[in-house]
Each structure stands twice: as C-alpha cells, then as structure tokens.
What does this fold into?
Amino acid sequence: MKVTVVGAGGNVGSTVSMAVAQRDFAEEVVMVDIVQEKDGDKIYPSKGRALDQWESSPIHKFDTKLNGTVDYEDTAGSDVCVITAGVPRKPGMSRDDLLEINANIVQDVTEKLVKHSPNTIIIVVSNPLDVMAQVALETSGLDSSRVMGMAGILDTARYRSFLAEEIGVSPKDIQALLLGGHGDTMVPLPRFTTVSGMPIKQFIDDDKLEEIVERTKGGGGELVNLMGTSAWYAPGAAAAQMVEAIMLDQDRVFPCAANLNGEYGQEDLFLGVPVKLGKGGIKEIIEVDLNDEEQELLDESADHVHSVLKEFRQLMDK
Ligand code: APR
It folds into this structure.
C-alpha cells in the first residue's frame, strides 16, 4: 500500500500526505517535490514537511512512513499517485489562468510517475482541474478508470458545510450531489440535497438556498481573497478520502471528475459526476436522471471545460 503525492512540499500536497498518514492504512506515503531556492540557498520542502509530519506520528498515533524526496525512483510501485504540483491562484485569478504553467508541470510529472509505476492510479488536484485530468490521462496512457480529478468531494463539502451552518444541523447529516466542471459553472443540485434523507427545501427557503448555491460556486475564490492563495485543508482532506476509498476498495460513491464517453451526453471530456470508487479506481460512472434545467446547466459547464481544453490544445500546437 504505497501512495505518492507530488507537490507535497506545498500546501495541498502536504495536507493530502498528512491526512493519508493519519488515516493509517498505507505503508508509505512518498512526498515528492522539486528543489527550491530561497534567499540563494537550496531548500527541500518535501523532505522538510515529511520529517515534520513524521515527528507527529507518536502524537497522532500512526505508523505510515513519510518519505520526502526529489527522486522519482522512490515512487516506484505506487498504487495511487496524487498530483498537486503546480501554481495556485492569487486574488483576481480564475483557475483557468493557471492553464499553461500547470499543463507543462502535470505533463512532466505524469511522465515521471508512470515510468516508475506503470499501472498506478492517478488523482489530479492541480487546476484547472478538469483539463489537468485530461492532460494526465493522455500523457499516462492509462485506462480512463485509473485517472480522475478531485473536485466534487471538495465542492459538495463546501456546499454541505454552508448548509449545515445555515440550518443549524451537523454537516455530517447533509447529503448532496454536485455535477460539472470545477469552476464557477459547477452545478450543485438542490433536488439531490437532503438532511438525513429529507428534502433540503423543507429546511431552507428558496432565496437562501440559491444564495448558498452561488456561494459554493465561488467557494474557492472566497478563500483566495481571504488568504491571498488557494485553499488546502478541505482539498487535502477530499483527496485523502479518494485515496482511502481506492486503496481499501470501499466502493464509496462520490462526485469526482471522470472521463466521460457518452455518459451525460458528453464525449472524451472530464466532468464531475457521481462514480463508484474502489480497487482499480473508477468502477462505475453513475448516471442520474436530470431534469431539463439541470441538464442545461451541466451542458453549459461542459461547454466551458471544452473551451479550456481547446485553449490547451492550441497551446500544445504552438
Ligand atoms: N514537480 C514537482 N513539484 C512541483 C513542480 C514539479 N515540476 N512544480 C511545482 N511543484 C511544487 C512546488 O514546488 C510547490 O511545493 O508544487 C507545490 C505547489 O504547492 P503550493 O505552491 O503551496 O500550491 P498549493 O496551494 O498546494 O496548490 C497546488 O493544487 O488546488 C490546486 O489550484 C491549486 O494548482 C494548484 C495546486
């Protein structure tokens, strides 16, 4: 049970590593990053963060080994690889503004990962998420069941936490579904949102619900404005939940970015949809019956992802 996290000297990657280690099911988490320079000196952020986290093992009570490295040979034989390498957003930026720089990084990292773990499963976290997942799929040559993006668990967690606070119930008791791209066009679905199985509309009026849907869509940007960089606690926890579901073959049902081949009327495009996650990655893409309004919103979201993908292909042609 070996997990690799690339970009683990950064905020999201180190949070994924820590969350996986604390869950204590893996033998080893390999934390990869590059050698950075600070004030003229070389620094090794993934080695530093790995050591710091390992020093917390007696307190958190885990024995998962944390191996900070800059050498991909250490990643050999990884069951699951999480890619968080890349640059985060700054205030005023959209996720799509990261396209060119992160596409090059994700391509490079994916090549190195599959060289050493040719049958791995890849979870992409770098943004713009849906297109970066496509880059990882095409670069790796892996089956589409083995490449996915982390977005839906995070976006629904934001939606659920906002609803819980508004209604005054535990976030554990809010269930929700959200589809579409990881951006402002994402599609939270109130019709599939419940409080312990009871329709959400029984607990909240339409205007407030709409306000929360809109806040969810801009949830990442809200944090970028507060912190000057993008979020890591909830994204890291969400990616760790996907790693656990796959490695423990849990058959969990989550919204994840999956490569669609006809499902939801989309072809060869990553989009957030409910999937069953377990051994081997995506075991099933689940199709729900959408009404016309929901399908229209999903199509709009897909159009947006298509436009960013087109921009990526044009960049590659150059
Ligand atoms: N190989 C390995 N690591 C790399 C590479 C590379 N080619 N290029 C950059 N990195 C590392 C950086 O050195 C840094 O440690 O990726 C890490 C990114 O960490 P942060 O700058 O803290 O960014 P973070 O907030 O973690 O976001 C990373 O996740 O949620 C997304 O939009 C976010 O795309 C961004 C990514």
